[in-house]
Amino acid sequence: MSEHESVPIVTLTDAAKHFGPVRALDGVSLSVRPGDCLGLVGHNGAGKSTLVYLVNGGFAPSAGEISFSGADDAAGAGVRSVFQELSLCPNLTVAENLRISNRALTGAGWRRNARAIITESLDEIFPGHGIDPDTEVDMLPIAERQMVEIAIGFAPRGTEARLVILDEPTSSLDAGIAEQLLTHIKSYCAAGGAVIFISHMLGEVFQVASRIIVLKDGRIVAERATEDFTRQGLVEAMGHVAAEGSAGTDLAERQTGEIVIRTEQGLTARKGEIVGLSGLAGHGQAEALAKLYLSQSSNWRAGHEPKSVFVAGDRPRDGILPLWSILNNMSISFLRQIESWGFVDRAAERAKAEEWKKRIGIRTEDITNPVLSLSGGNQQKVLFARALASTAPVVIMDDPMRGVDVGTKQDVYAMIRDEAAHGRTFMWYSTETEEVCQCDRVFVFRNGEISAELVPPNITEERILEASFHMQEAS
Amino acid sequence: MSTQSASRTPLAVLISRPWIWSWAAAALAFAATLGLTSGRGAGELAYAALSFGAFAAIVGMGQMLVITLGPGNIDLSVPATMTLAATLALRTMGTEPGTALYGLVIALAVGFCVGIANFALIFLLRLPPIIATLAASLIYQSIAIWSNRGLRIKPPEGLAEFATGRFLGVPNVAWVALVLAILVWVLLERLTWGRWLLATGQNQRAARLAGVPVEAVRAVTYVSVAIFAALAGYLLASFSGGAALNMGTEYLLMSIAVVVIGGCSVAGGDSNVPGVWGAALFMFLVVSMLNSYGTGAGVRNVLTGTIIICIVIAASTRRARQ
Fold it and tell me: Is the pLDDT at A448 greater than 50, yes or no?
């Protein structure tokens, strides 16, 4: 493969990207040459997306350098990206969508040219695809949209594609179509193109990648030729091995009661149990919890004894009532428990809120201050107080520790354990594996389904990672 | 926002109340009108303002509850509901003495049915409230036309006397609106239900996830606004000697304007009962002020619109500064 010796298409030298104090990417050096097929793996928040946006020119680096051969920018160098979140315009046809990224398609008859180009590209990558280029995109099923997106990524668009970045391209494709894509990637790279392939399907990564890069906490922790990795080694490189049985031991021995939750999907929880939900972000955990909560409460009536309460992680969308005081935000979920004849017992409301302000340590002089006067972490404490102050036996938590500092986290962990010991059940989705490792039982999600149910002593970071990533053998 | 410091003077507290602005505007218009007559006729002007303001206050409070539900929530069927309720009530009473209560029940029942129908369109067909209530109002208006065939039926004498009468020097209709205002204020400020309504208006999804039965809150609110409109229609028809097909027309803009001028948040989640009352008085007083200055109908409309816009701008910049 003589191309490997040629000039790199893109070179990153100590490139870093910071968002305020967050170091999303913390000094990465990397070059991609024609013929490379680079596998990029890493856990949630490892910095994969940020790296993609640096390479395709979406972000400028905060520090370090990024250079493209033969051009000033990513587009000129023929760098393309295909995203998992579909970026097609749903109201345009397949051919018209090609025009959006292909500025060279001008003049009369551009539609005809666009049709020809996209059809050729689709035929090449997915033989027998059966997609009509005149169909509007919102009429296509999700898999076909993803195919169109991929075909646009590889299609000539004024410039030839030299480096195509594929972010989870197979997540919505079935096995046969995915196989066609992998075959195409191999022949494309053999012909001198380059690909950066991001996937949680480790089998696919092993199948196509010539080199694998493991990102963790914004840094490259391993970069080797694919042959030098084993699957187990790759999983270990992605996560640090948790200290054996650190926090889980005493929890594991705790007595828990009868089953109080059982969903169609397979989630179960016992009285007094802390149940964790894990897996890669966006694999259906939040939806499963929201569905569980909605099924346990009603749009039409609210009883005096709610079955469950919800702690939101996405505060502006799901939690905070922005016009209100801290007091009113806290009390909304327990009003029914302190009312008489429909009237709010304002003395009792105040007393209960003051008590929880102390217990959970909300930093404010006066709980009648607006809730938005609090920092994000303290707003989150208000949401915790809202849930814990009610008498509901089940507490559902949707990644509630975002933006919460370490000290507060420890306080809340202690409070959760205490409440669980008194018979409350917790359903806890967290993107941080360490938190999940403290649970009594863990459900790992993949593609919207439960891929594993772990109980101690099997709740380890490795087991969770293993279940989060697809471990199928390469064919 | 450091507005919570304990050292504020009573005046500062007063100015920070959003309802003060509509009352101040009403007082200004009142003073400007009397300035022309050098103080003569103050009592008559106040009496007229309370009489006509009462109708605007009643429909305004209903509209306020709906607008509090959050962006997109509004009831444009208010005029048609007023007309329909008044027409059917007056037809049922047929000028017979002693039927006032019976007519009231009919009017409120019409309001209840209209509210249920509006909410059914919004909830079951997922229509935007602005379309659902506007389209439905054509139907209500048509029923009103069909049922009275252009005949103007007089209200029973006792009822007409009540609607135009006074108690302790204050018009009876103003007493009715005042009692309603107190009820609405208690609902919003003291009842769990009011908290639910305000929470829903701020963020419906967050409210639902906090355990608020949001659809029930919405349903009751849409029924309430229709009942308020029906009551206003019943009283207005009794007040003015019969139901007319166009009697509700001016109350479409009126009901929305008093909510906005009264200092409620158009984005929802924030209600203001005293402000709506102040705005209702203002809306009458500004027209009578322009009348007494001898402006023509066209100029009057232009000026009224301009004044409303100025007050809304003043109120919203004040909120933004907070």
Answer: yes
Which helix (H) or strand (E) segment holds residue B37: the answer is helix B20-37
- Rounded to whole angstroms, the Cα distance separating A343 from A345 reads 6
CATH number, position B50: 1.10.3470
Report the domain count for chain B: 1
The reported pTM is 0.74
φ, ψ (nearest 5 deg) of residue A268: -130, 155
Q: Residue B33 has which token pair?
A: 């009108």
Q: Is the dihedral of CA A377, A380, A384, A389 positive or negative?
A: positive
For residue B97, give its domain range.
21-30+41-316
Q: Which residues contact A458 (CB under 8 A, 6 or more apart)?
A: none
Nearest CB partner across the interface for A302, out of B1, B4, B213: B213
Tokens of A65: 């350098």
CA atoms in the 13 A half-sphere facing the CB of A106: 3
How many angstroms separate the CA of residue A366 from the nearest CA in chain B? 9
Q: Which of B1, B198, B214 sits opposite A299 (nearest CB)?
A: B214
Convert the pLDDT of each residue in B17-63 to its tens digit. 777 888 888 888 888 888 887 777 888 888 999 999 999 999 999 99
The fraction of chain A above a pLDDT of 90, given in percent, is 15
Q: Quick one: which of A100, A110, A106, A101 has its CA closest to A159?
A: A101
Whether B205 and A343 lie within 8 Å, measured CB to CB: no
Is B200 within a domain? yes
Whole-number average pLDDT of chain A: 83
**Which chain B residue shows the shortest CA-CA distance from A292?**
B209
Mark the ranges of chain B whose per-residue pLDDT is less than 70.
1-8, 14-16, 150, 315-322
Domains of chain A as residue ranges with CATH: 2-238 (3.40.50.300), 248-468 (3.40.50.300)
Query: What confidence tens digit (pLDDT) does each residue in A387-442 have?
Result: 998 888 899 998 887 666 666 777 888 888 888 888 889 999 887 777 888 888 89
Phi, psi of B31 (to 5 degrees): -65, -40
CB A64 within 8 A of CB A13: yes
Q: Is residue B149 part of a domain?
A: yes
pLDDT the model gives residue A2: 44
Q: Which residues of chain A make contact with B199, given a CB cutoff of 8 A?
A: 321, 324, 332
A321 contact residues in B (CB cutoff 8 A): 198-199, 202-203, 206-207, 210, 269
The closest alpha carbon to A207, from A189, A192, A223, belongs to A189
Among A333, A369, A370, beta carbon nearest to B211: A333
Paired with B170 in beta bridges are B167
* pLDDT single digits (tens) A39-61: 998 876 678 888 888 888 888 88
CA gyration radius, chain A: 26
Which of the 8 DSSP states describes residue B153?
Answer: P
Dihedral sign, CA of A293, A296, A298, A303? negative
Of B211, B216, B265, the CB nearest to A309: B211
Check whether A249 has a pLDDT greater than 70. Answer: no
Query: For residues B264 and A388, what is the distance between their CA atoms, to the nearest angstrom?
Result: 32
Alpha helices (H) along B168-242: 172-190, 192-202, 204-209, 214-239
Top residue of A323, A371, A395 to mutate, by most chain B CBs within 10 Å, is A323
* Rounded distance between C-alpha atoms, residue A127 and residue A131, angstroms: 10
Calculate the alpha carbon distances from A94 to A83, A98, A127, A157, B287 in Å: 16, 7, 17, 14, 59
- Is residue B5 situated within a structural domain? no
- B4: in domain: no
DSSP A43-103: -TTSSHHHHHHHHTTSS--SEEEEEETTSSSTTTTTEEEE-SS--S-TTSBHHHHHHHH-T
Asked if the Cβ–Cβ distance from B209 to A310 is below 8 Å, we say yes
Distance from CA of A256 to the nearest CA of B (A): 27
